[in-house]
């Protein structure tokens, strides 16, 4: 397992990530998928390069025998980061959404105020709307400098991850280059 030659520097705010991939013109068309995957993993694991490196190794192992055309990075990455650095839950499963976001933000010792004393209460969850919960989580995370991202899966699921707010532009460049349509949880 090895990381790409280009190192992430938290101080440069991705201004020059991966040899110019963050330039004003957008992603370098010649950037390899592996290089883009590495950058995405750094984004979804803020301050945790060790986890990003482990996930990158899993990506490399999973793609070792596959041709470039056989790989769908979004779906492979979803499986690799699920419940560690990302989430995917059924659209109507408010309980799973609350549980997954609570698990993810615990990495930074954060708690989300869901507007109720007990967000695991069956009565609350029975009436909860996942779209409204996404907005609550997004707004709460923004106050701590994070952004909740949603991946448009084209399925009946809500999927995404959390990054540092300062890396919003980098996410807007990297995800589409990997064929991942994203938007923030703001709506």
Give the CA-CA distance, first to last residue.
38 Å
The low-confidence runs, each spanning 5 or more residues with pLDDT under 50, are 1-25
Main beta sheet strand tally, sense and closure: 4 strands, antiparallel
Number of helices: 8
Task: Count all strands and give the number.
Answer: 4
- Globally, the shape reads globular
> Average pLDDT value?
86
What proportion of the residues is helical, as a percent range?
40-55%
Strand content: 5-15%
Explain what the structure shows.
A 4-stranded antiparallel β-sheet has the order 1-3-2-4, with helices on both faces. The protein is an alpha+beta fold and 187 residues long. The protein is globular and about 50 Å long. Helix content is 43%, strand content 12%.
Could you write a compact summary of the structure shown?
The chain is of the alpha+beta class. It has helices at residues 17-20, 33-44, 49-63, 73-81, 94-105, 122-127, 130-142, 168-177, and strands at 86-90, 146-151, 157-164, 182-184. The N and C termini lie far apart (38 Å).
Give the helix/strand layout.
Elements: H1 17-20, H2 33-44, H3 49-63, H4 73-81, E1 86-90, H5 94-105, H6 122-127, H7 130-142, E2 146-151, E3 157-164, H8 168-177, E4 182-184
Antiparallel strand pairs: 1-3, 2-3, 2-4
Helix pairs in contact: 2-3, 2-8, 3-4, 5-7
